[in-house]
Design brief:
about 375 residues, mainly alpha, Farnesyl Diphosphate Synthase, two-stranded antiparallel ribbon, 17 helices
Length: about 375
């Protein structure tokens, strides 16, 4: 991917982000709040912006099958809000303190409860968790409330809206929450009892299925279909799902060797948390006994020093875990791109191909 291709893609993604946010903040679309803390909690990550890749990919997918991408804006906004809700709750689970360059919701409102409400630390911590849970729930409901606009504003078949809603809140959500649960469980499973395939299946469920839905939804809207069985919908869905897994593999790499300021979240947190990434799973068996003993003492250790974290990062690089994850991600991208051969060569297809390249080359 050349610098020009990269800049073009980012510019096109930002255009879709603007379109999506203009829709989201309309008087008739946005939520009406009566409690300031709840509004601030719900809107925190939304206002911070993020990359908005999922809504852009959904709109690209709509255009790639010959549809009018503007008709897909309500679904694009719904997917972005749905993704945001998962981030708010995921940050509680992972005990993260930064997201999109701002404090995580539970951490921010724990601090605000102390400073603004005079709560003691224990009560404030509970308040922060409660606000994050409630705000995530509200974001999920907001996402569902936007999908009917596909029919009311753009006159798409009501059967399509019903199918998109059922698919998101039944199949996709069940898989995503299963992946989240398995991710937590895997962090406590001894590494020698965990396989690479099990970790990859967790990544498919936790990240791949929402991208899979994103591609399928965009293509189904573009074709004005009531289900996802059409070959072109399946092709785009396969592509975005495969790239979604690659995206998470790259995310795990950036969580180890990325730049904290660029990422907008803590680098090295996965090591302290003891996440069973492909990087760790590949590296540990190759280490010397001394290096392995040290690495196992740091993985999952909340009290590990920054120096210890950096030393483990060096070991993961030295023993090939990061390169192995990159190679796996490249394989998923290649498989995904092959499914796009069914699509005509249009500017929207080229945007999707550029996004696949971006997944591999991104630095945040």
């Amino acid at each position: 991917m050349t610098k020009t291709d990269f800049e073009t893609l980012i510019a096109e993604v930002k255009k879709r982000q603007v379109m999506m946010r203009e829709y989201l903040f309309r008087e008739e679309t946005r939520l009406q709040f009566s409690y300031q803390h709840l509004e601030d909690a719900v809107m925190s990550y939304v206002r911070a912006g993020g990359k908005s890749l999922r809504p852009a990919v959904l709109m690209f997918a709509c255009g790639a099958v010959g549809g009018d991408e503007k008709t897909a804006i309500p679904a694009a906004a719904a997917v972005e809000l749905y993704h945001t809700f998962t981030l708010v709750h995921d940050d509680i689970i992972d005990r993260d303190t930064m997201r999109r360059g701002v404090p995580t919701v539970h951490h921010d409102f724990m601090k605000r409860a102390i400073n603004e409400l005079g709560f003691d630390e224990e009560t404030a911590q509970h308040y922060g968790l409660a606000l994050a849970i409630v705000s995530g729930d509200l974001q999920q409901g907001w996402a569902a409330a936007l999908l009917p606009d596909l029919h009311y504003q753009h006159h798409l078949p009501p059967e399509l809206v019903l199918h998109l809603t059922r698919k998101l809140f039944r199949y996709t959500q069940m898989n995503l929450m299963n992946g989240e649960t398995v991710d937590v469980m895997q962090s406590r499973i001894p590494l020698d009892q965990l396989t690479e395939d099990e970790v990859l299946e967790m990544l498919r469920q936790k990240t791949g299925v929402l991208y899979e839905y994103t591609g399928a939804a965009g293509a189904a809207i573009g074709l004005k279909l009531k289900d996802f069985d059409h070959p072109l919908v399946q092709a785009v869905s396969t592509f975005t799902g495969k790239c979604g897994i690659a995206f998470q593999l790259q995310d795990d790499i950036l969580g180890v060797v990325g730049n904290a300021k660029q990422m907008g979240k803590t680098v090295g947190a996965d090591i302290r948390e003891g996440k069973r990434t492909i990087i760790v799973l590949h590296s540990l068996p190759k280490m010397t006994d001394t290096d392995r003993t040290f690495a196992l003492g740091v993985l999952g250790n909340d009290e590990a020093s920054d120096n210890d974290i950096q030393e483990v990062i060096g070991l993961l690089e030295r023993y090939g875990g990061i390169d192995h994850s990159r190679n796996l991600a490249a394989r998923y991208i290649e498989e995904g791109l092959a499914s796009l051969n069914q699509l005509e060569d249009t500017v929207y297809k080229r945007y999707l191909v550029s996004w696949a390249d971006f997944v591999m080359q991104r630095e945040r």
